[in-house]
Amino acid sequence: MFMAAVASCACSEAEDRAVKLPFLRAVRASAIATSLVLASSWVSAQEAAQLDTGAPVTNDQIFMMMFADQGRLVGFQSMIMAIQLETLKAQVDRDAAILARNLELFDRSAISELELEISQLKDAWNRLQMVVAEKNLTTVAAQVAALQLIGDHFAGKSVPLDDLYAAYLKGWNAGCDKGPAEVRANEAWMAYAEKALMRARELNSRGNLSDATVLQREADLRIARSNYENRASRLDRCREIFFPSIEEVARQGQ
To answer: How many whole angstroms separate alpha carbon 242 and alpha carbon 234?
Structure first.
C-alpha cells in the first residue's frame, strides 16, 4: 500500500536536485530582500522629516517591524526546509541501496521476509516524508509571493487586492493540502516501527539484541502511533480555521 503511494507521489532525484533546492535558496533570498525593500521605502520617507522616537508608535511603524520579522521568519523556514530536503535525500539514497541489497539477499534466502519488509517500509516512509517536504515548499513559496506583492505596494507600484488575496489564499490552502500527505507519512512511520519492534523482540529472544534497544523500539512505536492518531484526528480542523473572504478584506478601511 505504501509503495503504491510512493510511486504515485515521489519526484525524481534529478528533478529534486536541479529544481527544488535552488528554488529554496531563491525563496530565502527573496524573502529577505523583500523585507529589506519595504523597510528602505519607509526609511527614506522618514528621513525627509524630523524623527521623534519618543512619540507614540504608529500603525505603519508596527507593521514595518512585523513585516521585517515575517520576512526573516520565512527566510529561516526556507533554510530549515533546505536542510531537511538534503537530509531526506541522503536517507532515501541510503535506504534505497539497502533495499536493493536486501532484495538480492532475500532472493538467495539469506535474510528473512521480515527483514526485507522492514527495509521496504523504511524506504516508503522516507519517500513519503519527501512528499510532505515538497508540499511545505509550496506553502513557503506562496508566503514569499505575498511578501513580494506587499513590498511592491510600498515601493509605489499598483497591486490589485485580488492578486494579493490570491497569493495569501494559495498559502492557506497549501498548508491544509499537506495534511493528508502528513497522515500517510505518519502511517508509514507507524508501520515501519511496528515491524522494527517485531524484529527487535525476535533478536532479543535469541540473545542478539539488548533489552535497552527493545525498549527504544517500543518507545519509537508509541511515538509513531501517537503522531499518526493525533494528525489523523485533526485532519479536518485546518479547513475550519477562519480564512477571511476577499469581500471581508475589501471592506477593511472603508
So the answer is: 15
Distances (CA, A) of 10 to 16, 41, 85, 181, 216: 10, 42, 13, 11, 30
Give the tens place of pLDDT for each residue, 40-89. Answer: 555 555 454 567 778 888 888 888 888 888 888 888 888 888 888 889 99
Q: What is residue 184's predicted lDDT score, i.e. its pLDDT?
A: 95
Query: Quick check: 102 and 195 in contact, CB under 8 A?
Result: no
> CB–CB of 178/239 below 8 Å?
no
d(CA 83, CA 105): 33
Nearest by Cα to 201 from 185, 223, 220: 220
* Backbone CA torsion sign across 132, 135, 141, 143: negative
Distances (CA, A) of 227 to 83, 182, 236: 22, 10, 16
Task: Give the residue ranges of DSSP H helices in the chain.
Answer: 2-9, 13-15, 21-47, 59-107, 113-154, 161-205, 211-233, 237-240, 246-250
Distance of CA 79 to the CA centre of its chain: 11
Under 8 Å between Cβ of 135 and 185: no
Q: Supply the pTM of this predicted model.
A: 0.71
Kindly state the cell numbers that stand for 60.
505603519
- Are the C-beta atoms of residues 36 and 159 closer than 8 Å to each other? no
For the stretch 15-30, pLDDT in tens is: 444 445 555 555 555 5
Q: What is the pLDDT of residue 47?
A: 53
Q: Tell me, what DSSP letter sits at residue 211?
A: H
Q: Whole-angstrom Cα distance, residue 164 to residue 147? A: 9
